[in-house]
Write a structure and sequence with these properties.
Two copies of one chain form a homodimer.
Chain A (H helix, E strand, L loop, with lengths): L1 H7 L4 H25 L6 H7 L4 H7 L3 H23 L5 H16 L4 H5 L8 H28 L6 H13 L1 H4 L8 H14 L5
Chain lengths: ~200, ~200
């Protein structure tokens, strides 16, 4: 996160940690506002109030609401890319892909990152948007390689790019219907979705 | 469509057909504006210009841009529900579901309906939104029944509601990545997606 370092990198350890935790508190306050009001109608003043900060103090942490949105989306992608990295420790490609799909769902249904992940990157200024799109493309390419590997192992003649997009669509769509009060936990949803999406990569 | 009848039902045959075709022309003009600018930033004046109408004339056909959006989404749902009805002629549940999934993709990638189908219904006034949500729920229930039937035929112990949402997510997501200049036609995308999504409903 380029802009973050401007302020944060000059802070000593304890203050840097306090800075990070304050930013997390702001994200937690902003997420339901974005979710309920939509990004266009959310105001910095409203976010400041929800985070119990003065507007001036909020601007110390984020220069605008698009920077908050950027930071949420960037963090979600970092978490999903970390899922790819962790999965590398598993030998079986199918189990590796299962771990990646599961992490994706858990990130989407997280109360902070997930709340903004469905918002179109078009809401971001061009420079921030380009960074998110580049990271998202990197993630999609990694998933596509895994899908191709699983399909080859299963001797399945499949279009890995198309199947990857089908998978990502199914996973991303969860934010539109998931309700915390629903019958299934995020973990149960993640496991069931991964099982279904992986069955489509088997030769019957 | 309730509002439509107000004007249209009083017109004789030839004029009613002209009215319909003028409305279709307006949708065709509005769709790329919604797609490129987003719904919030699209203006009635801009839509009127693109449709080569005066603003006053445009208001004769649609009372506002949310009525245009409503009409597009309503038409998309009618087309998908018609897909369910047509599929009833096929005996095999799996082939029936294949036909429904295929029609869904073709509707999403249509230059008019698909352009607005990804827009959140939150953009609509409550009364119009309720009508779209009710019709969407009716469609989703019909798909879910079909998914349940296919799963039973395959002796697959599956959560039909969750799998239905995974399928709809994969299908709806196409509007975010489809480009008319891409390597695959809408028909090829529809067939490949349906094949993948149906494989996940087989017992391996």
């Amino acid at each position: 996160v380029v802009r973050k370092s401007n302020v944060r990198s000059r802070l000593p350890g304890a203050r840097a940690r306090r800075y990070d935790s304050r930013r997390d508190g702001i994200l937690r306050a902003a997420a339901p506002i974005f979710r309920e009001r939509g990004f266009a109608d959310a105001g910095m003043r409203e976010i400041a109030e929800a985070a119990e900060l003065s507007p001036a103090n909020l601007y110390h942490y984020f220069k605008g609401k698009d920077e908050i949105l950027y930071y949420c989306q960037d963090r979600a992608l970092d978490r999903m890319l970390a899922g790819i990295a962790v999965a590398r420790g598993t030998t079986d490609a199918r189990e590796r892909l299962r771990a990646v799909l599961t992490t994706h769902v858990l990130t989407m249904l997280d109360e902070v990152e997930g709340a903004t992940a469905h918002l179109q990157v078009e809401s971001l200024a061009p420079r921030l948007r380009a960074q998110i799109v580049a990271k998202r493309d990197r993630y999609e390419r990694a998933v596509r390689r895994l899908v191709g590997e699983v399909a080859r192992d299963a001797s399945l003649d499949a279009d890995a790019a198309l199947i990857t997009r089908a998978m990502l669509g199914a996973l991303n769509w969860t934010v539109t219907w998931y309700r915390p009060a629903g019958p299934k936990s995020p973990r149960q949803i993640a496991d069931a979705l991964a099982a279904y999406l992986l069955r489509g990569l088997a030769h019957c």
